[in-house]
Amino acid sequence: MNTANATQLNSLRVSLVQRSYACTHALCNAHHLRELTYAHEEDGQRWARNMHKLLLELHDAVELAGGALPEGQAKRWRIHYRKLLG
Question: Between the CA of residue 25 and those of 6, 17, 48, 50, what are the distances in Å?
Answer without folding.
Answer: 9, 12, 21, 24
